[in-house]
Amino acid sequence: LKEERVLLLDAWRVFEKAKGDAESLAKVDAMLPRRVKRKRMRTDESGAELGWEEYFDYHFPDDGDSNAGNLKILEMAAKWKQAQQAQDSSSSSEDESDDED
User: Reduced to 3 states, what is the DSSP secondary structure of residue 84?
Assistant: First the structure.
């Protein structure tokens, strides 16, 4: 799906270069994705690991909101962890005060 989207944007860019003006070309250029090299583990049908495979992924500027959801989850997890640590430290300090009595 991403590759098809890249091909469509590239064809649109070629069209704008031939027939469009600078403003329309700049609009299409702003929609073009950033190409990112990634790695993933390859496995065969039986599930055995074959090694790492490099591939290209595309990050579109329009899809910026999809990463925001992941960041929100990480932020909430960090807050939860801090709350748990605060709760643990307060319960341990209560235990110490009980031991003093």
Answer: helix
